[in-house]
Amino acid sequence: MPQCKKNRFFQIAIHSIAWGLMFTSPFFFAYGRNDATFSLSRYLDFCVVPVTFIIVFYINYCVLIDRQLFRKHLGRFILMNLLLIVAVDLFQHFWHEIFRLYVMTDLPRKGDGHHGPPAYFFLMWNFMLLALTVALSVAIKMTGNWYRTEAEKQEIEKERTQAELKNLKSQLNPHFLFNTLNNIYALIQLNPPQAQYAVHSLSHLLRYVLYDNNQNLISLDKEFAFMKNYIELMSLRLSSDQVKLNIDIPDDGRGYMVAPLLFITLIENAFKHGVSPSEKSFVSIAFRITEADTLVCTIENSYFPKDDHDRSGSGIGLDNLRKRLNLIYPNRHILRTERLGDRYMSQLIINL
Q: Among candidates 141, 349, 157, 156, which has minimal Cα distance to 263?
C-alpha cells in the first residue's frame, strides 16, 4: 500500500508539472514587454489551449481508453475522439475569434490590411495537436498499465516463491530431525553416556532449526557454528581408527548473510553414505570465502555402493536443496555432485 501511494503521488506530480509548464510558458515569451494589458490579454486568450488539451487528455485517460480501447471497441474509440477533437477544435477557433473581437481590440484584423494564414490552417494545425494529445494519453495509459501488470506479476511470483520456500522448509525440518535421531539411536547402543551428551547437543541444534530457520537470511557466523556442532554430534559415534575426519570451517563469516540450512543436506549425506561400519572411510568438509564474495563448500567422502534393497538414498534432500537454491539464489549458485572412483564429491558455490 505505501508503494502504491508513492507511485500515485509521483504520477500526480508529473502531470501537475507538465500542465503547469504549459500554463506558464507564455510568461517566458511575454517577458520584457512593457504593455501589461497586452500581455495579460494574450495570456487569457492562450489559456483556452491548455484547458482544452487537459479536457481531451483526461476524457481519454480516465474514460475512453478504459471503456472503449481496452475493451476492444477500437472503432467506437476512434469515432468518439474524432467528434471530441472536432468539437474542441471549433470551440477553440470561435473562442479566439470572439476574444480578439471584444477583448483584444488593439490587434490588427484582416479588414485593416492584415493578411495572415487562412482559418482552416489553424483548424488543421489544432486538429493535429489535439490528435497528438489523444495519442499521448493512450501511450501514458498503456505504459502505466504495463508497469502495473508487471508489478502485479512480480508480487504474485514473490508470494508463490515464499509459499514454496515455506513448504520446502517444512519438509527440511522433519528430514533433519529424522536423520539426527537415527544417529543418536545408533550412539545409544555404542556409548550411552555420549548419547546423553548428544541429546543435549541436539536441543541446541533444534533451537537453531526451529527459530533461526524462520528467517530468510542469517549471519554466516551462526551457520558455521551450527554446522560445527552438527558435525561434532555426528562424530561422537564414529571411531577415529575407522573414519578419518578432515573439517575446515572458518570461525569468521566476515559479516556475510546466507540462507539457513543450505549445506546441512550435503553434510548429512556425507556422514550417511560415506561412512562404513566395517571398512575404513573418510569425510572431508571445507568452506572458504573468496575475494570475489563467493562462498565455496567442498565435501568429499568415501563411496560405498548401495545394496539393491537400500532405499535410504531417496534423494529428497538433494531435490529440496536444488529447489531452494533456484528460488533463493537464481543464477548465483553452482551445485555439483559426482562420483570420482572410490570417492564422492559435492560442491556448492554461492555468490553472496
A: 349
Q: How many Å apart are CA 200 and CA 285, to the nearest integer?
A: 24
Q: For residue 169, count CB atoms less than 10 angstroms from its CB and return exposed for 0-12, middle for 13-18, buried for 19 or more.
A: middle
CB-based contact 218:260 (threshold 8 Å):
yes
Name the range with the highest mean pLDDT among 8-17, 83-92, 342-351: 342-351
Q: Which residues pair with 243 in a beta bridge?
A: 281
Alpha-carbon torsion angle 203, 208, 209, 210, nearest 10: 80
pLDDT at 224 over 60: yes
C-alpha cell at 279: 571398512
Query: What structural domains and CATH numbers belong to the chain?
Result: 2-116 (no CATH), 164-351 (3.30.565.10)
Alpha carbons 163 and 326: distance in angstroms, whole number? 14
What is the number of other CB atoms lying within 10 angstroms of the CB of residue 284? 18
